[in-house]
Amino acid sequence: MRYLMLIGLMVSFSAIACPDLAGEYLCKRGSTSSYRSIETTEDGFRITRDGNITDYVTDGVTVQNVPETDSMTDGKYTSKCEDDSFIVDFNTTLLYEGVVIGKQVSKTTYQLKNEQLHIISKVKVKGVPLPTVKEVCTLQ
Length: 140
What we know:
Helices cover 11% and strands 61% of the residues. It has one helix at 2-16, and strands at residues 23-29, 32-41, 44-49, 52-57, 72-82, 85-96, 99-113, 116-125, 128-129, 133-139. A hairpin with a 2-residue loop joins strand 3 (44-49) and strand 4. 14% of the residues are buried.
């Protein structure tokens, strides 16, 4: 019984540590703009981008049921809140015409700064770091 209460407290504290990201945002990356909607849920966030909805549970547990596509398989992610940031770590196997071409590892950090949402994505493919992608989003 004490163990269950301790788990409940840990989940409560992890939810408290999450930043308040809820809102409709216009995000810019260079000359490209996109819209993003973020809802706070009971156990994390629901993020909608380009009509795609992803629910993130911020408990730090790895989710392994990422839908496969023609270009990726074995996708899994872990999401958590840490130091006033929401962080998503993603790993997958990349495919080209059904053939494995390498592994991708990425870390995306969502953080509020000066009333703007900053989204920073760092990606490695086959162990080689790609340029960091930075988006700055304003509430709409």
